[in-house]
Amino acid sequence: FNVCPCRAPTQETETFTLTLTEDNISAEDERLDHRGNKHVDFSRSKTDCKIHKGQKCFICDICGKHFKYKSLFNHHFIIHTSQKPYCCEQCHKCFRTKSNLLIHMTIHTGEKPYCCEQCHKCFRSKAHLVRHRRTHTGEKPFSCNTCGSKFSQFSHKTIHTGEKPYSCEQCEKCFRCKPLLVRHIRTHTGERPFSCYKCEKCFSSSSELRVHTRIHTGEKPYSCEHCKKIFRSKTNLVVHMRTHTGEKPFSCNICGTKFRQLSTLTNHKTIHTGEKPYSCEQCHKCFRSKGNLVVHRRTHTGERPFSCNICGAKFTQYSVLANHTRIHTGEKPYSCELCKNKFSSKRNMLAHQRTHTGERPFSCNICGAKFTQYSVLVSHTRIHTGEKPYTCELCKNKFRSKRNMLAHQRTHTGERPFPCNICGKKFKQPHALMLYFCNTCRKTNSTCRVAFVIVSEGTRYHEYISVYTLQQLICC
């Protein structure tokens, strides 16, 4: 290595040459000679280097970095050699430094020796504790000299420069910072080293585990300044804030449609490309997004991880649970801009709005029939394919749609879950109730408009009926 220029030979400086031989050199010193030479010339001062105007004494010949101490230089040099001499005995993962190995070992032992004095949260490494403390102090020591923004971590700069110095050896994809590369590599290896202590579900990153854990604890530390709605993750809060600001920063370069989330844009693009990269291992059905695949898998496993804390009903998706909860609360946050009708779910509102516009965006690629909802298109397509994925458990009859199967099952159970709110008569299917209401109760009751609103929105089957407009049913 080179010697700092401040080290010009003086009376207080002794210059000598150290010849490296197998007899008088350690393995650590041998790594220092990264040019492969058999000897190194350098100067050593009797006085510590830091008195020389703060200049650093040891210069790396490869990248030009300066170091005050030989130990720091040794630590740095391993980066160039790609050596990882410290290996974990349990998972055989290797590291450049012993300190990194010790931090990694706490993943297996569960040890978290560094504790926050204010909230008593514990961490595996001191660096993580220091970073966490800034959430209490509000300290943001890293400032960007381009946009002036301040941060608690040093990772923002590459956004402006576009620099992505960390690349994956398998697919050559590049990343701005090393943690993103490490997380990406796990998509190749399938490694999920972070597991939930309660349900034992595993995750590829600690941040995903942290957000997941809040499902069990109910913790929602992020609050919206406008409507006071609270969220489990900062990402969800940022996306929610855009509903207030109207910001849609992600746009499709094919059709120009804009989105609030990058993931939504990514899924949208597959509509144009027809790409369905996610495949079910059991039935080989393909999907455009990983989220849709995860939900589909639950049809095989029967898993319903989201349960209503009021009636105990369980669901395969959180969004379905959220819509269901509004049945109990009576909340209808989505309103039609044209007629001001309100709905408990965005899906129902969009389906309703198409009755005003006449839009039918979902078309069958076999017969060309068009539909207002994608789910109706899916059911229709099964007429052509002959697919009947829903089976009655009692008589093994098969059906194209879940709705038809449920209607059939009532012939076994005798259940009549759809009552008329005027006379109390019960029906097995909602359309039978609608026909009865329009032909009988409507003729004998002058308050049919009010009665229909009660029928369509105040009972458990409001989602089915709400796809029809009030005008359509009153005029039938």
From TrEMBL:
GO cellular component, one term: chromosome
SMART domains: ZnF_C2H2
Keyword Transcription regulation: yes
Gene Ontology molecular function: any one: RNA polymerase II cis-regulatory region sequence-specific DNA binding
Keyword set, alphabetical order: DNA-binding, Metal-binding, Nucleus, Repeat, Transcription, Transcription regulation, Zinc, Zinc-finger
Gene3D superfamilies in UniProt: Classic Zinc Finger
Broad class of where this protein is predominantly found: nucleus
Domain of life according to the entry: Eukaryota
Matching PROSITE patterns: ZINC_FINGER_C2H2_1 (PS00028), ZINC_FINGER_C2H2_2 (PS50157)
Residue ranges constituting the C2H2-type domain according to the UniProt record: 58-85, 86-113, 114-141, 142-165, 166-193, 194-221, 222-249, 250-277, 278-305, 306-333, 334-361, 362-389, 390-417
One protein family per Pfam: zf-C2H2
GO biological process: one example: negative regulation of transcription by RNA polymerase II
InterPro entries assigned to the protein according to its UniProt record, in alphabetical order: Znf_C2H2_sf, Znf_C2H2_type
Cellular compartments annotated: Nucleus
Annotated function: May be involved in transcriptional regulation.
Family under the similarity heading: Belongs to the krueppel C2H2-type zinc-finger protein family.
Protein name (record): C2H2-type domain-containing protein
Source species of the chain: Anabas testudineus (Climbing perch)
